[in-house]
Write a structure and sequence with these properties.
alpha/beta, Rossmann fold, two-stranded antiparallel ribbon, 19 helices, disordered C terminus
Length: 504
């Protein structure tokens, strides 16, 4: 759930031989004879297994004159295809991520479910290989040098948005969540599965809910990890960011080694933010990739945005006390490394991202909600960005029915992390108000997407297998999964702090 305008990309560029395999579970499970679907062996980065890739042509809109676009997908075959009529359908987040290039992550999170069922990954229209809508962005050197505190950001953002709109040259109203849901169903029909077990993460939970609403007969179960309620605007994220950051400060304060090495961390952080608001800091750092010395202008927005994105992962959270402290002491090398590692502009299709937020989130912002969400720094920043971008893009607002909570009797498992800086547990509670068969599990020390951090993969597989949460032991979700804090650039200290565990 990233920002909507290109100048944020300047600041943080920080923030996935035709041959049919006759024994593939995909072919065994076909319920129709669709000879137009050709599956080709393919491989994805970080995954040694052979996948089967393909595409189908889908209407761009309800108007035949608008033509068609290709929707690409990949199938990770089941280890033992004992349920050939069923598959797990993975929905990527963002919005703007493609699912196919994230095959390694989906395979890891669904590794136990894959033992008996295929995993199907579809690049949602506008992402990945499915008519990707990508805007231009600056290189890392330009981003580091850019001073947003003195630039006319509104004018620059307007120019960037107009250039992107001209480049894309398509009505973004055809790339909304509601439009995309039909593509996923078309893939199911083409591949011949009788039904899908849904697995969505972050924004992927929104498209999963919309797919369930439009095609309930095609859904067997649904797992929503880091839940975005249909009735909630992404602009509400600011409070979750602040709460997650406070949890980090509190944990460091209560950790003997961290508190010794980085005392008064929260106070130092806030003082440094106030200093940057008054006057950005000019420095030089080594380019994180070329190692050449380059100018680095540290502004409040750059600094806060880098810290915010690092809150999503335990690995990057563990280095934040060091990054913050070094920055307050004038050493910005750790901050530069953090920003370079969070390069979002290539993994997020920003044109598609903007289509979603301008159609579905911006129209929700009543004067009351604007006032409420603007109480946080990031909430206010996001709303200001939406107000610049969305009038230019002219995406049609979502129908009012889109914002109604999903009414469903499908077995649904909702997963949340208490330290999630994007989709807190309260959002899942909001999403499930009209779900007749829903279970909500909260991991106390997890962040965003607990399927990658906890024992959730086994629970998900059991849930899928028995199509119910009855009698499934979920106690492991409550186990701590913190990582030790980095005491210096060489790593963690050898303390008596409890080591992080990642249970399966």
């Amino acid at each position: 759930m990233e920002s909507t305008f290109k100048y944020r990309n300047r600041l943080i560029k920080l923030a996935i031989l035709p041959f049919l395999v006759v024994n593939s579970a995909v072919l065994q499970g076909q319920e129709n004879d669709n000879s137009s679907v050709k599956l080709t062996p393919c491989y994805m980065e970080g995954l040694s297994d052979r996948l089967m890739c393909g595409s189908i042509a889908q209407p761009l809109s309800d108007n035949p004159a608008d033509g068609k676009i290709d929707i690409h997908f990949a199938v990770i075959p089941a280890i033992k295809p004992s349920n050939p009529g069923e598959a797990v359908l993975g929905f990527a987040g963002g919005p703007g991520q493609g699912a196919v290039d994230l095959a390694r992550i989906f395979n890891r999170n669904l590794r136990f479910a894959r033992e008996t069922r295929d995993i199907v990954l579809v690049d949602q229209r506008g992402t990945g290989y499915s008519h990707q809508l990508q805007c231009d962005s600056d290189d890392l050197k330009t981003q580091f040098a850019f001073n947003d505190a003195i630039a006319d950001l509104q004018t620059m953002s307007e120019q960037d948005t107009k250039q992107c709109k001209a480049k894309l040259n398509v009505d973004l109203s055809h790339f909304t969540t509601s439009a995309a849901a039909k593509d996923f169903e078309a893939v199911r029909v083409a591949l011949g599965y009788k039904g899908f077990h849904l697995y969505g993460v972050s924004y992927g939970t929104r498209i999963a809910q919309e797919y369930t609403r439009q095609f309930p007969a095609s859904v067997i179960t649904s797992t929503l990890d880091g839940v975005a309620p249909m009735q909630q605007s992404f602009a509400a994220i600011g409070e979750a960011i602040d709460d997650s950051l406070l949890a980090l400060f509190e944990r460091c304060k209560n950790d003997v080694a961290c508190n010794e090495q980085f005392p008064r961390l929260e106070i130092r952080f806030n003082k440094f933010l106030a200093k940057l608001e008054q006057q950005p800091v000019e420095a030089k750092v080594r380019h994180p990739r070329t190692h050449q010395m380059i100018p680095f202008t540290i502004t409040k927005m750059k600094f806060y945005s880098a810290i915010r994105l690092a809150l999503y992962s335990h690995t990057t959270r563990s280095i934040l006390p060091l990054v913050i402290t070094k920055a307050t002491q004038g050493d910005f090398s750790p901050l530069a490394g953090l920003m370079a590692n969070a390069d979002l502009t290539q993994s997020l299709a920003m044109g598609m991202h903007n289509a979603i937020v301008c159609s579905e989130d911006w129209p929700q912002l009543t004067p009351q909600l604007r006032s409420k969400y603007s109480n946080t720094y990031m909430g206010k920043t996001m709303i200001e960005g939406l107000d610049i971008v969305c009038p230019i893009l002219e995406v049609k607002p979502a129908d009012k029915a889109f914002y109604k909570p999903l009414q469903s009797d499908k077995p649904t498992l909702l997963l949340s992390g208490s330290r999630d800086p994007a989709t807190p547990p309260s959002w899942a509670e909001l999403a499930m108000v009209e779900m007749a068969d829903a279970t909500h599990l909260v991991a106390p020390t997890a962040t965003h997407g607990i399927g990658s951090q906890t024992c959730a993969p086994k629970i998900i597989a059991q849930f899928i297998e028995q199509k119910s949460m009855q009698d499934i032991d979920t106690n492991c979700i409550s186990e701590e999964n913190d990582k030790q804090f980095f005491m210096n650039i060489n790593g963690v200290a050898n303390t008596h702090s409890k080591l992080a565990t990642n249970k399966e």
